Amino acid sequence: MWNHITKKIIIADFKQGILELDPISRELQTIVSRYQGERLEGPNDLVISTDGVIYFTDQEMTGLRDPTARVFRLYPDGCLQLIISNGPSPNGLVLSRDEKALFVAMTRDNAVWYVPLLSDGSVQRIGRFSGYYGIGGPDGMAQDAEGNVLVAHSTLGTVFVHATNGELVMKIKSPRGVHTTNLTWGGPLMNVLYIVESETATILKVDWHCDGWLMNLEKE
């Protein structure tokens, strides 16, 4: 993901941690790979706030039997804060438009969790924003300019679209395979939704009714 402050690409690498790539020099360096002296279990995805704070999931091979995966917040000064420690396979994540909440796809819970972010840096009253069904679970996520939360389900071949209150307002069905895994925005007006369907190695696209929301591009 592009960091609008450092002008570098931030990468969640399952084995090496959170990395930073300079697109000009092509230098790759590790930002963080340990927490309290122990290696991270397996970073999966990340999102960057407008002030450069990186939120990322540390997934490992966890599930409902062993809900011990984590979600971290990494500040620009290098301070690493644990905000969730009981996640059943946290995966994709997005920030709300006002950055007062974090939405986290908990794949093995087959749900998206809603994580309020308080002004003092604490988190309280974490709950389920939306729930699903099937063998897999939610994977990649995105958000549009209206605040709708888009969730790719890894085995249903579906992108679920939720209003800000969690209500399901639309389903986008894949015309190819059923493993819809990742979402992002593109196009000249940033109003094209791109969907990764990993079963057939296909990139699908949908012309959206409004702009996509990539807050890390807002200061460009």
TrEMBL record:
By what name is this protein known? Answer: SMP-30/Gluconolactonase/LRE-like region domain-containing protein
Print the keywords alphabetically: Metal-binding, Zinc
Q: Spell out the catalytic residues.
A: D139 (proton donor/acceptor)
InterPro entries for this protein: 6-blade_b-propeller_TolB-like (IPR011042), SGL (IPR013658), SMP-30 (IPR005511), SMP-30/CGR1_Lactonase (IPR051262)
Q: Which residues bind substrate?
A: N44
Gene Ontology molecular function = metal ion binding
Which residues make up the binding site for a divalent metal cation? Answer: N91, D139
Q: What are its cofactors?
A: Zn(2+)
Q: Which SUPFAM superfamilies match?
A: Calcium-dependent phosphotriesterase
Q: Which domain of life is it from?
A: Eukaryota
User: Which free-text remark accompanies the cofactor?
Assistant: Binds 1 divalent metal cation per subunit.
Q: Which residues form the SMP-30/Gluconolactonase/LRE-like region domain?
A: 10-196
